[in-house]
Amino acid sequence: MRSAIIWGLVQGLTEFLPVSSSGHLVLVPAFLSRFGIETPEPSLAISAVLHVGTLVAVLLYYRSDLAKMLRFRTDPEARRLILLIVVGTIPAGIGFFVRDVVASLQKSVIGVSIALLCTAVILLIGQRLATGARRIEMGRIPDALVVGVAQAFALIPGISRSGATIAAGNGRGFEPTQAARYSFLLGIPAIAAAGLVEGLELLDVGDLGPEVLVGALVAGLSGYAAIALLLATIGRVGLVPFAVYAAIVGLAGLILL
Predict the structure, then answer these.
(1) Is 137 left (phi over 0), alpha (psi -120 to 50) or beta?
(2) What is the pTM of this model?
């Protein structure tokens, strides 16, 4: 049960904060083991159930946007949002074909640590680009493709999905909190797909125990809090604190593990 709570907290906080959930799911157990706290690294299948918790969190947080999109027949802005999400999701479809490669990369502590350092650089660049004022309802297909490619790049464990997509959104001239809003809405189909594909695998192996469900609940609650924290931080100080954190964790992984 302790492991499930740790997994849930790590997944919930780092899925939306731009510091890479996949990277933390590798490094946190490794760091804890150095202090005699053995926390087995979750499999990709169990990670998918934790994704379900974070999916519920983003659905609840952006329920007004989702309700708006249901009015697509009469609302042009709703149709624009749906188009941007669909187009932005297409590049991430490559993840279905490289699942084995992603799984192998997730086994490398050094590789994940280096990727976290890359995340820090991405966030610093994204902060330099955070000068736009566009709302995502003003977005166009080229914007969606650029952000979508950034999301596909974040398939690499240690590269933050939210960090890469927010930085890309900043680069396309979106206002920072709008770039974050687009990142989270774009994450809905990506998180749902991961949960569906790996969740089926989890059911096949019969590993859906109560501790996993507890982890999903913890992931949902902490994920909701993480969204609110990120939006508040971006509005005040930007992405730099997260870049510093990612760099520290990445360096610690290289030096200590």
Answers:
(1) alpha
(2) 0.89
